[in-house]
């Protein structure tokens, strides 16, 4: 990373009249067991924090839920079933170009009104769960 400073971090108070604008909270007691995540980072993956989860959110997948709950056998079984389902779905399309059999669900090709560039435009159907 060429944009990083070439000197070590300065200790607090090294620059006279400086003010601390932000300081990270200490890591939780057992953060080493969780990839040294902060409390904030650990909570990011908790389902149901008051808002609605997107229908495509991986936390809705049974294999991911089982993995997070420590049930590795169930997670492996769910994942294998999902992969087999994906393989079966794709079998009829083997050897065909993707654009011949697949259409994006939440975007459509369009032209930018000012530049004329090809873009993908959102169709506003994502949250309906289609």
So what's the overall shape?
Answer: extended
| Overall SS class | alpha+beta
Series of secondary-structure elements, N-terminal to C-terminal: HHHHEE
Q: Round the mean pLDDT to the nearest integer and report it.
A: 85
- Report strand %: 5-15%
The count of helical stretches stands at 4
Low-pLDDT segments? none
Largest sheet descriptor: 2 strands, antiparallel
The number of strands is: 2
Care to describe what's here?
- With 130 residues, the chain is an alpha+beta fold.
- It is built from 4 helices and 2 strands.
- The chain has helices at residues 39-44, 62-68, 72-90, 98-101, and strands at 107-111, 118-122.
- The chain has a two-stranded antiparallel sheet with strand order 1-2.
- The longest helix has 19 residues, at 72-90.
- It is extended, with a radius of gyration of 24 Å.
Helix and strand arrangement:
Layout: H1 39-44, H2 62-68, H3 72-90, H4 98-101, E1 107-111, E2 118-122
Helix pairs in contact: 2-3
Task: Describe, in short, the structure shown.
By secondary structure, this protein is of the alpha+beta class. It contains 4 helices and 2 strands, in the order H-H-H-H-E-E.
Keywords:
4 helices, 2 strands, 130 residues, single chain, alpha+beta
């Amino acid at each position: 990373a060429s944009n990083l400073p070439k000197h070590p971090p300065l200790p607090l108070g090294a620059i006279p009249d400086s003010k601390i604008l932000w300081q990270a909270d200490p890591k939780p007691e057992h953060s080493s067991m969780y990839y040294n995540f902060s409390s904030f980072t650990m909570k990011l993956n908790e389902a149901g924090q008051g808002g609605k989860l997107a229908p495509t959110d991986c936390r809705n997948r049974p294999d991911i839920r089982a993995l997070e709950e420590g049930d590795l056998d169930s997670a492996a079984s769910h994942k294998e079933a999902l992969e087999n389902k994906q393989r079966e779905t794709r079998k009829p399309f083997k050897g065909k170009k993707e654009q011949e059999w697949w259409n994006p669900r939440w975007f459509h090709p369009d032209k930018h009104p000012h530049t004329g560039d090809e873009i993908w435009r959102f169709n506003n159907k994502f949250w309906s769960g289609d």
